[in-house]
Design a protein that fits this description.
- The structure is a single chain.
- By secondary structure, the protein is of the alpha+beta class.
- Helix content is about 40%, strand content about 20%.
- The strands form 3 sheets. It has a 6-stranded mixed sheet with strand order 5-4-6-3-1-13. Strands 10-11-9-12 form a 4-stranded antiparallel sheet. Strands 2-7-8 form a 3-stranded antiparallel sheet, with helices on both faces.
- A hairpin with a 7-residue loop joins β4 (about 55-60) and β5 (about 70).
- Bound molecules: alpha-D-galactopyranose.
- Pathway: Carbohydrate metabolism; galactose metabolism.
Length: about 375
């Protein structure tokens, strides 16, 4: 299906936005902490036709038989269902969160296609939100900057889609740059671009999609977020970002065991992000392997968001010579990443696939990703 086949005319513009991989810094974003994601060379494309009335129509290649329609006067989360909320929610959030005046604006026909795998923890949803946010911002001439658009995307995800996620995915999708990682302070939204230099070092990032599906609107993600908020409240800080590694022994005395382990993950993970940035700058990507592995162990043992498939992917990749590996994204399924020598890529992918078969797990999908440019008009 194409835009033409759904709407019967050619689109006027196309915008695209990438999914993301997080190199390190997991669940730190909603704790006002640090993250280090990069935008990947898998994108969502939003093809758009401009209308003369106030109707927004939305269709996608995943579900071409259904075209969802709403006017700009009816924008409200209660009227947004299923995947179309990722598009319609952006128009609503531009008004609600960024204060955009849509009263004299005209609608669009939107068609979404994507090669970001869905449910793999690679932010297929943020890719839709960010492509659409950039498009609406341009076409409605709202003049909002990319950091504001990231907040709009998060607001829509939180309130229109209903997933209590942080700001990382939208920031990566909007601010990503070729061959670089985005070092983001989630409290201030200050960013620095850090050179990854993979090519120069003969390295690649492999994604190992376990195909174990997860959903962040329900379940574990929300529970982890609540544990972190409880920890911060008991420790008397605004967010866990304000707790340092040196504060942990005192925190242990004041928290129950489970809350303490959740807090310890966040506090040590923030430190690992800072250490990774420094290591990348001073010693290059080959030196970050042990930080990646320590991050995985912390998520497995303290934050308890890994699953056996992710643990097996990480252990097998490291045993077969990966520089480092860890699960990436929200957890409870999805993908792991492994930093590997270009020549070792095939052997490591085969070893992981065989290990999955031997364990009786579903065959994983393994592919290489490159750090790519963020959302843009194509
Ligand atoms: C999901 C959320 C992000 C972040 C990660 C975990 O991807 O959307 O905001 O919390 O999980 O780091």
């Amino acid at each position: 299906m194409t835009f033409q086949q759904v709407y019967g005319y050619e689109p006027t513009v196309r915008y695209s936005a990438p999914g993301r991989v997080n190199l390190i810094g997991e669940h730190t974003d909603y704790n006002d902490g640090y993250v280090l994601p990069f935008a990947i060379d898998r994108r969502t494309v939003a093809s758009i036709g401009q209308r003369d009335d106030r109707v927004l129509r939305v269709a996608s290649a995943f579900d071409p038989s259904s075209v969802v329609e709403l006017t700009l006067d009816e924008l409200d989360p209660s009227r947004m269902h299923g995947w179309s909320a990722y598009v319609l929610g952006i128009a609503w959030a531009l008004r609600e969160q960024a204060g955009a005046d849509l009263s004299d604006k005209r609608g669009f026909d939107v068609f979404i296609e994507s090669d970001v795998p869905v449910g793999a923890g690679l932010s297929s949803s943020a890719a839709i939100e960010c492509g659409v946010a950039l498009a609406f911002n341009d076409l409605w001439e709202l003049g909002l900057d990319r950091k504001t658009l990231a907040r709009v995307g998060q607001y829509s995800e939180n309130h229109a889609v209903g997933a209590p996620t942080g700001i990382m995915d939208q920031s990566a999708s909007l601010l990503g740059e070729q061959d670089a990682v985005v070092f983001l302070d989630c409290r201030t939204l200050d960013t620095a671009v850090v050179d990854l230099a993979l090519e120069a070092n003969g390295l690649e990032v492999l994604v190992i999609d376990t195909r174990v599906e997860h959903a962040h609107a329900t379940g574990g993600y929300k529970a982890r977020r609540e544990s972190c908020e409880r920890g911060a409240r008991i420790l008397g800080v605004e967010a866990l970002r304000d707790v340092s590694v040196e504060d942990l022994p005192r925190a242990e005395e004041r928290l129950d065991d489970e809350t303490f382990r959740r807090v310890r993950h966040i506090v040590t993970e923030d430190q690992r992000v800072l250490d990774t940035v420094r290591t990348l700058r001073e010693d290059g990507p080959r030196a970050i392997g042990s930080l990646l592995v320590a991050s995985h162990e912390s998520m497995r043992d303290d934050f308890e968001i890994s699953v056996p498939e992710l643990d097996l992917a990480v252990a097998t990749a490291v045993e077969h010579g990966a520089v480092g590996a860890r699960m990436t994204g929200g957890g409870f399924g999805g993908a792991a990443i492994a930093l590997v020598d270009r020549e070792a890529r095939g052997a490591i992918a085969d070893a992981v696939t065989s290990a999955f078969a031997a364990a009786g797990y579903r065959e994983p999908t393994v592919f290489t990703v490159h750090a790519a440019q963020g959302a843009r008009r194509d």
